[in-house]
Amino acid sequence: MKKMLKATLFLLMVGFLVAGCVTHPEIKSAEKDTPYTFPLESPGAQFGSLPPAVKNAVRAEAGAAEITEVVQLDHDGVPMYEVHFRNRDLFPPLYVAADGSVLRPDLSLAVGAPVDRFGVSSGGAVSGITFAELPPKVSKVLRERAPGAVMANIAKETWGDRVVYVISFTDPEHHPKLYLAADGTVMNEGPK
User: Fold this and answer.
1) CB atoms within 10 A of CB 31
2) The whole model's pTM is what?
């Protein structure tokens, strides 16, 4: 009988506990007003979205230094990147052109993009030619003819007595090769 009483008491306690747990839950709605309205982006994601030549330049100059921010600049229609590091005393902001050239804070060329044994830089410049090294008239026409286009190669060629810059783009379907004489004249044909 004692066992039966204990079993009955046990079942009653379990029943009360279960009954106490079964309630209508309050439906909580998520707050729609939040101070966070913009997607958050980590420095790693910012670095990961850089062009390969820029990543290589940053690694070459700063190694594994911790990046805090990457800012894309627009200099006369050409993308450039300002990279900030955690240790500002040891690593001041680094400025890099899209072809991997390291720039001074005034965006003048400090170190050109590296050139491999075939004369091609990691950023695609042929014969060591970077955007910063183009004659002003050529860079002006290039900005007008292909605003926002990403250059793949810049080749400096001699056609007879003329110096011609052959610029090819990463999206040749929308931006075909551009042939520009040193004076900014657009050449419609290949070499003669």
Assistant:
1) 6
2) 0.46
Render pLDDT for 91-131 as a digit per residue (tens, 0 to 9): 999 999 888 888 889 888 788 776 543 344 444 433 447 77
The tokens of 73 are what? 């600049």
Domain boundary (80, 114, 148) is at 114
Instruction: Give the span between the Cα atoms of 130 and 183, in whole angstroms.
Output: 17
d(CA 42, CA 56): 19
* Burial category of 51 from C-beta neighbours within 10 Å (exposed 0-12, middle 13-18, buried 19 and up): buried
Residues 65 and 109 in one domain: yes
Distance CA 123, CA 54 (A): 8
Residues 71 and 100 in one domain: yes
Q: What's the full length of the chain, in residues? A: 192
DSSP secondary-structure letter at 161? T
| Residue written as token pair 């993308």 | 79
Edge to edge, the sheet with strand 78-85 lists 67-75, 78-85, 94-97, 102-103, 109-111
pLDDT tens digit sequence for 142-155: 888 888 777 777 88
Name the one residue in this structure whose structure tokens are 């005034």: 106
